[in-house]
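Dig into my protein:

:::
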Amino acid sequence: TDLGQTWGAIATLLDKPGTFIRQPITVLNNGNWLLPVFYCRTQPGEKWVGNDDISAVKISSDCGKTWRDVEVPQSLGCVHMNITALSNGTLVALFRSRWADNIYYSQSVDNGESWSVPEPTELPNNNSSIQVTTLTSGELALVFNHMSAAGALERRASLYDEIDDGDNSRKEPEVISGRSAFWGAPRAPMTVAISADGGKTWPWQRNLDEGDGYCMTNNSLDKRNREFSYPSIKQGADGTLHIAYTWFRQAIKYVHVSPEWVKESAR
């Protein structure tokens, strides 16, 4: 109540096991809060590798005191759901793909009460995070790795395949859907893109950072990891784009560009 100067006691927001949050809350004109979540699911006795993850939206009508769950239909493999509102009131959601194929797209025309089945966009995804925002112009700006499994020369067993927790009782999960999560696709380049049609097409794309994006290891202490990942993007009052992302798992890198700069060099 004092613009963040002081804070109340910490309390559990969501207590369902396997619930993860990556993207921010969207506050609607009707006062509802929309919080996208994803559920990391696994069968008892099996290791988690991401084969069975799904997305949902938590909705609160009382400023976060209580929440109800709206599952995104047929969202297997779609995680890190990022919601943004278009000027016509339609809600657009973009997803990271566990399959490392494409960024996926869904929309809601009823304030998040229901969502369309996620469909692949023209943009690649490497099973790494993304973020999108609506600009004052009505366009969408997205920051992501322009990479997919198709560009990978190697593949990891999982994100945590280097960690030995001493528990050898858990077995490798069975592949039920016919697809398994792809880990190890390069996390580079870091790219910003702009869409003028609500996320259907992305004619303007420009790289912010380039490199080999090596992420077959999480080892940043010995500087073996060279990924750009987990980007965030916001438009400032002057219309420019403020972007931050993980740099080699060693630091947070900040980049400040204009939408015009992005459009100067179409991919």
